[in-house]
Amino acid sequence: MTTDNTANTDNTASTTGTENDGTGYAFGGLHHVQLAIPPGAEDLCRAFWGEALGMTELQKPPVLAARGGCWFRGGGLEVHLGVEKDFRAAAKAHPGILVHSLADLAKRLESHGHEVVWDDNFPGHDRFYAFDKLGNRLEFLEPQRAA
Fold first, then answer.
1. What's the pLDDT at 113?
2. Rounded CA gap, 32 and 106, in Å?
3. Which residues does 93 contact at the CB level (< 8 Å), separation at least 6?
4. Are the beta carbons of 80 and 71 closer than 8 angstroms?
5. Three-class secondary structure assignment of the chain
């Protein structure tokens, strides 16, 4: 296993895992991120992911819809919210979601009653943390423009 000990802070692809490194495969990005929700919380998810964030709810395939939960898409991001019987909100683990016009998103979340906590500890990026209506931690970030 190869380990790359450098943080990718400029949002460019690393060469680790590309077809040119001899593995024969390449990572192409994430299809979706899945977060856990408790049973019966779909309406809270719709209020946050649909109304507050403005994402579009997707129709789940019937075999998966029977399990509960809901899926949303906005821009290039797809989020699957899956029911977990013994749900516990992710207070530390989180997706890092790239955003264009980060300040506008922060204003929108605040206008929907969500606290936004700005953090300037990631070089080359503006970012903030927020929590969904179930307490799952989310990071939203935008690369800083070159001066």
1. 96
2. 22
3. 137
4. yes
5. CCCCCCCCCCCCCCCCCCHHHCCCCCCCCCCCEEEEECCCCHHHHHHHHHHHCCCEEECCCHHHHCCCCEEEEECCEEEEEEECCCCCCCCCCCCEEECCCHHHHHHHHHHCCCCCEEECCCCCEEEEEEECCCCCEEEEEEECCCC
Q: What is the pTM of this model?
A: 0.83
What gap in Å lies between CA 21 and CA 43, rounded to an integer? 45
Give the pLDDT confidence of 52-79 residue by residue, as tens digits. 999 999 999 999 999 999 999 999 899 9
φ/ψ of residue 146, rounded to 5: -65, 140
What is the residue whose two structure tokens read 């979601």?
97
Residues in the chain with pLDDT < 70?
A: 1-20
Cβ within 8 Å of residue 4, ≥6 positions away: 14, 16
